[in-house]
Amino acid sequence: xxxxxxxxxxxxxxxxxxxxxxxxxxxxxxxxxxxxxxxxxxxxxxxxxxxxxxxxxxxxxxxxxxxxxxxxxxxxxxxxxxxxxxxxxxxxxxxxxxxxxxxxxxxxxxxx
Amino acid sequence: xxxxxxxxxxxxxxxxxxxxxxxxxxxxxxxxxxxxxxxxxxxxxxxxxxxxxxxxxxxxxxxxxxxxxxxxxxxxxxxxxxxxxxxxxxxxxxxxxxxxxxxxxxxxxxxxxx
Lengths: 112, 114
Description:
heterodimer, A: 54% strand, B: 7-stranded mixed β-sheet, 11 strands, globular
């Protein structure tokens, strides 16, 4: 069983929609949670970083962590065509020091 | 934008060839990583380094080797490439900022072994 499971998608939504991306994990030692965005033929770039249960907001993006359910989510409000990319969840333990465990990614397409 | 560079971007070679994938960063980061990514699959850590002369194997077994002679440089070598090595290889470096360990990725090398 994979330590991190991510809804594979793909997702196709109209511009302006609210997008929900989700991951579940099985390793309770994971304490730090990240969302990366990866455009085609590019490396992943960090979008959100959280280390506590609850919500963290940054502009149109909200990261949600529920450690009791081992579930994390990323919400994108007012989605734009420029949000079209692959979104990867990632997580690590307190002694992970950058050694991340990734989900398989969700391909998102926002059409005008 | 992160200052981490990978060359070549694309490489097509024949079986049995020795190859080196280059990775350099200008941010002075001590920690560097190599991840492998197949289409539609997770990134898997294959090597990491916490500084000069420090290298460790990651969670995914790999026949590649790495070296870290200079802080800014973290090359990956395959002594004898095989079709099973076909994949995307992503290099990253990280720094600890305000309780967050942030990874910065290069654009990757897409390797195809015929």
